[in-house]
């Protein structure tokens, strides 16, 4: 009728005694209890400070020749639209432009393989300035967001990267729109 009752073995997690010989001296000390923090207390957090020149009516550190950071997706979009990157940038800004590509963007293009060999050939163009990366890993978005705080404009092809760069005041973004490049200025930022 009913189920046979089974005895539960090891239902509690077994712990070592503080007097156990296998423990070392530092492990024998009782762990300190964490202080319960008051939820109504003010929380302090550090927010990265942006240079003061970026909060003016325009970015005072930008000037010709413009150094433009190029993303992997932007190179691919320009290939699909059959645009010469350097010529279309000069046509958009009406001044000399130096496209810059970081090492992590170059590695990202190399990892894409044989399908993107044209993008790799464009990225290795001598008109592009190679920027060395000192960080570990090959995630290009973090590197580009970090470098944007320096006086450079950027050309993100990815929506997520555009949103991240949009939060930084005073950085113009060059976007691809209907077979042309356009400059999108973001000087109307909320300073918080």
From TrEMBL:
Superkingdom: Eukaryota
Region listing for Disordered, in residue ranges: 1-46
Basic and acidic residues composition bias: residue spans: 17-46
Name under which the protein is recorded: PIN domain-containing protein
Keywords associated with the record: Nucleus, Ribosome biogenesis, rRNA processing
GO CC list: nucleolus; small-subunit processome
rRNA processing in keyword set: yes
Any Pfam family hit: Fcf1
Entries under PANTHER family matching the protein: RRNA-PROCESSING PROTEIN UTP23 HOMOLOG
GO biological process entries: rRNA processing
InterPro entries: Fcf1/UTP23, Fcf1_PIN, PIN-like_dom_sf
SUPFAM superfamilies referenced in this protein's UniProt entry, alphabetically: PIN domain-like
Subcellular locations according to the entry: Nucleus, Nucleolus
């Amino acid at each position: 009728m009913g189920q046979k009752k089974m005895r539960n073995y090891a239902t509690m997690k077994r712990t070592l005694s503080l007097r156990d010989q296998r423990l070392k001296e530092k492990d024998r000390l009782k762990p300190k209890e964490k202080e319960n923090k008051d939820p109504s207390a003010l929380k302090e957090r550090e927010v990265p400070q942006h240079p003061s020149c970026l909060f003016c009516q325009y970015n005072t550190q930008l000037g010709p020749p413009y150094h433009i950071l190029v993303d992997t997706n932007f190179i691919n979009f320009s290939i699909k639209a059959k645009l010469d990157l350097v010529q279309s940038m000069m046509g958009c800004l009406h001044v000399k432009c130096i496209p810059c590509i970081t090492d992590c963007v170059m590695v990202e293009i190399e990892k894409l393989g044989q399908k993107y060999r044209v993008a790799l050939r464009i990225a290795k163009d001598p008109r592009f300035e190679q920027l060395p990366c000192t960080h570990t890993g090959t995630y290009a978005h973090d590197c580009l967001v970090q470098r944007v705080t320096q006086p450079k404009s950027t050309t993100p092809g990815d929506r997520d990267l555009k949103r991240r760069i949009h939060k930084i005041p005073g950085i113009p973004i060059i976007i691809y729109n209907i077979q042309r490049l356009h400059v999108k200025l973001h000087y109307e930022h909320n300073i918080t």
